[in-house]
Design brief:
The complex is a heterodimer of chains A (about 325) and B (about 270). Chain A contains 8 helices and 12 strands. Chain A is α/β, with parallel strands linked by helices and about 325 residues long. In chain A, the strands form 2 sheets. A 7-stranded mixed sheet of chain A has the order 1-2-3-4-5-6-7, with no helix packed on it. In chain A, strands 8-9-10-11-12 form a 5-stranded mixed sheet, with no helix packed on it. Chain B has about 270 residues and is α+β, with helices and mostly antiparallel strands. Chain B starts with a helix and ends in a 6-residue tail after the last strand. The longest helix of chain B has 22 residues. The chains are: A alpha/beta (about 325), B alpha+beta (about 270). At the A-B interface, helix 4, helix 7 and helix 8 of A face helix 1 and helix 4 of B.
């Protein structure tokens, strides 16, 4: 026991002494991200299922790009400028066409903090028209918190890049013989979710309206989200790209686990409200049957329940 | 942009300083003595685990909605005339001050609400008995950012619903003690949230007063502040038989008045 302690202590001390140098070298340098071409010209990088940490540099959400004949559109940029640069590097191994659009599917830091890597002439930053408001209100906190979580090295160069174009109704872009159809959605995962359809391949980018494997997080409206998923089930798609999970899933089947989770949370929370239970009781016991089906369950589930409770007790 | 980054750095520095102070023993960090003086003057405030308990999560799931509950056992409840809730480290530490009336009941008194917590802090409940004693329960809560976090998940909806109230009767605790919950749709702007479009801070605007009555008798009157969460929510016990309706009047700092009346309570 004592020898283990001593070793741990020594490692700790050595780690402290070496930390700055080590971190600088080991920081996930903007090597190119791994890509999967889920359909012709549609490339997806799969983020890890993790919290922001120095060893992932904020590469914890899916990012993607679509290549047209004249230009490229990027869809979400990862959680730091470093991840954004690594996505750009990967893209340059596929195409030399200019990036014309950087689209953010919603305001969360793991999807927008890589935007800075794409700043340049002729690049439009595009989002749901309500994203600017939501992101501006949270910007300072996102920067402070994620700088703390990633450390200065992994965070270097990261800044908030606001949208230059807000989408308030169905909108189309042309990448040269390739149409992207953007659709702002009503409040669900957040109040600023935007979906993107690549008309050529029928690929639908859902951002965090779709989670797989990684437990969903509710920062909008659980009622709105369930309603939206029901409505979207009739939209056809050859494949969908979730914000967290595999590079591509089938639709609408790919949303079944998510619907089951949200349904379980809403069902249990509604029942407990009716029974006069408190928010604390609900966050301890609602939808615990879902534990084991999801990664990062302990990190987010109780918070989801408390958000659902605060919303549903107004019904 | 530089301003955002600069203040983020300042925030990190403050955090580091406060952590350092805590690691160094925490005394330099203890704001309670001066707070106590502001709130209660020279009077003595005594920790008393037999007189009241305070439930609060050690680590909050959401710093903008931290649920807390105060229990006062029946043996003491009848003598309690006031309750003050405090979050030491918040910019406005006094969360709420309740004054109880004759309809507050004599059974176990349970008051629950949700608070914002801006940084790791002690949370306190102080009751005042009718013989003038101040008795306290304290819990340390790890949460951060509750006052500046834009809790508004759907910003448009929050404003559209402002002023909507709900008064729920809950299953009776016993024949003499009943329970109800009052909810007010209100953003309870803390004055620390930024208006995205103007870049200016949204002025504080919050529910500052609330009065709950059963018939002509007072259950409690409350003074509230920005440390109460968005959509102020208070669950409380009160005395009385079935069948008497409750009435609530709330006011915010802009002078808006909101009222609600419960359906006559069943059993």
């Amino acid at each position: 026991m004592r020898s283990i302690d001593r070793r741990a202590l020594m490692t700790g001390v050595a780690g402290l002494a070496l930390a700055p140098g080590l971190v600088a070298r080991a920081a996930p340098a903007p090597a190119a991200l791994a890509l999967t071409e889920v359909a012709p010209g549609v490339h997806v990088h799969r983020g890890r299922h993790a919290l922001f940490a120095p060893d992932n540099a904020g590469d914890i959400a899916n990012t993607a790009f679509v290549v047209g004949r004249e230009a490229v559109a990027v869809i979400d940029t990862g959680g730091s400028a470093g991840v954004g640069k690594a996505l750009l590097a990967a893209m340059r191994s596929v195409t030399q066409l200019p990036v014309r659009y950087v689209i953010n599917t919603h305001m969360h830091p793991d999807h927008v903090l890589g935007n800075a890597a794409f700043l340049g002439e002729g690049v439009a930053f595009v989002a749901h028209h309500k994203m600017a408001r939501g992101l501006a209100a949270r910007a300072e906190r996102y920067l402070a918190v994620n700088r703390g979580l990633l450390g200065e090295d992994a965070f270097a160069g990261t800044e908030i890049v606001m949208p230059t174009l807000g989408v308030s109704a169905r909108h189309e872009f042309d990448l040269g013989g390739r149409r992207l159809v953007l659709e702002p959605r009503p409040t669900a995962h957040t109040d600023n979710d935007l979906t993107v359809r690549d008309a050529a391949t029928g690929t639908l980018f859902l951002g965090d309206l779709l989670f797989a494997e990684h437990v969903p997080t509710i920062d909008g409206s659980i009622r709105g989200w369930l309603t939206l998923l029901d409505g979207m089930a009739s939209e056809s798609a050859a494949r969908v790209v979730p914000g967290h999970g595999p590079a591509a899933l089938t639709w609408p089947d790919g949303a079944l686990p998510l619907k089951r989770y949200l349904g379980a949370v809403a069902g249990d929370v509604r029942r407990m409200i009716k029974e006069g239970k408190t928010l604390v009781e609900a966050s301890r016991s609602a939808a615990t049957t879902e534990r084991g089906h999801w990664q990062l369950f302990e990190e987010y589930h109780a918070r989801n329940v408390s958000a659902a409770f605060a919303e549903l007790e107004w019904e | 942009m530089t301003c955002l980054i600069r203040s983020a750095a300042a925030f990190a520095m403050l955090l580091a300083l406060s952590l350092a102070a805590r690691a160094a023993g925490g005394d330099a960090d203890d704001v309670w003595p001066s707070l106590k003086k502001d709130l209660f003057g020279a009077r003595e405030v005594v920790e008393d685990a037999a007189a009241l308990t305070l439930e609060a999560p050690y680590r909050a799931e959401d710093a903008a909605i931290v649920p807390i509950t105060v229990h006062v056992p029946a043996a003491i409840a009848g003598t309690v005339k006031g309750l003050t809730l405090v979050v030491d480290k918040n910019p406005m530490p006094m969360v709420a001050k309740l004054t109880f009336g004759s309809a507050a009941g004599s059974g176990e008194r349970v008051i629950s609400t949700r608070v914002r917590i801006d940084m790791y802090s002690n949370v306190r409940a102080v009751i005042e008995t009718d013989d003038g004693r101040l008795l306290m329960a304290t819990k340390f809560v790890k949460a951060a950012g509750g006052c500046s976090a834009p809790a508004l998940k759907d910003a448009d909806d929050a404003l559209a619903q402002l002023g909507k109230m709900k008064l729920r009767s809950l299953p009776a605790q016993s024949s003499a003690t009943r329970e109800a919950q009052v909810m007010v749709r209100h953003p309870n702007y803390s004055g620390m949230q930024m208006n995205q479009l103007t870049g200016l801070y949204i002025p504080a605007k919050y529910v500052s007063e609330m009065e709950v009555k059963r018939g002509s008798e007072l259950v409690f009157r409350m003074e509230g502040g920005i440390s109460l969460s968005e959509d102020p929510n208070i669950r409380f016990t009160y005395g009385g038989a079935a069948g008497e309706a409750l009435e609530v009047t709330a006011k915010d700092t802009d002078g808006n008045v909101f009222t609600a009346r419960s359906e006559a309570t069943g059993s």
